[in-house]
Specification:
Layout (H helix, E strand, L loop, with lengths): L3 H30 L3 H27 L19 H28 L3 H31 L3 H23 L6
Helix pairs in contact: 1-2, 1-3, 2-5, 3-4
The chain binds hydroxy diiron-OXO moiety.
Hydroxy diiron-OXO moiety (OFO) binds next to helix 1, helix 2, helix 3 and helix 4.
């Protein structure tokens, strides 16, 4: 059974993951209006992943005797300065999410709730991957700079990446 404190903290995380999904969705929609279909495909797909992160938490909270509350929708930014600005925002955002996960892990240890601690390890690994990917992409965009041709190929690469991730998941990776 979850303690009231942990239940509250996990519900806060549900809010963060829900907002993440909205945030990626807003960036995806903006990218699509800029003709960046690869970037858009990658971000639309990621918005779905964030929704799954939220759902996984809701189900866990309910399973452990709490109540996973669906959060209100908060409007994310609608326009962005550039693709590089988008991925810099993503990196900053994911670093913040990692911090919120770490705080949760810390709380489980304080409360000796090893079941929740174990459950959260999935999020710990996920955050390592998400931060690393965002960093890689920001580095690539720094190399590309203002080169329009470079951006064209970058967009194509992200389209391929989105397709690969989707194929990997339909091959049965759980919880993504
Ligand atoms: Fe849910 O991992 Fe990103 O925010």
């Amino acid at each position: 059974m979850l303690s009231p404190n942990l239940s509250k903290a996990l519900n806060k995380q549900i809010e963060h993951e829900g907002f993440s999904s909205q945030f990626y969705l807003a960036m995806a929609s903006w990218a699509e209006t800029q003709g960046l279909n690869g970037v858009a495909a990658f971000l639309f797909h990621h918005a779905d992943e964030e929704r799954m992160h939220m759902l996984k938490l809701i189900k866990f909270v309910n399973e452990r005797g709490g109540h996973g509350v669906v959060p209100a929708l908060k409007q994310p930014p609608t326009t962005f300065k550039s693709v590089k600005a988008v991925f810099e925002e993503i990196l900053k955002h994911e670093i913040n999410v990692t911090n919120t996960i770490n705080q949760l892990v810390d709380q489980t240890l304080k409360e000796k709730d090893y079941t929740t601690h174990n459950f959260l390890q999935w999020y710990v690994s996920e955050q390592i991957e998400e931060e690393a990917l965002a960093r890689q992409i920001v580095d690539k965009l720094k190399l590309i700079g203002d080169d329009k041709g470079g951006l064209y190929f970058f967009d194509r690469d992200l389209e391929t990446l989105a397709g690969q991730v989707e194929a990997k998941e339909s091959g049965g990776k759980e919880g993504k």
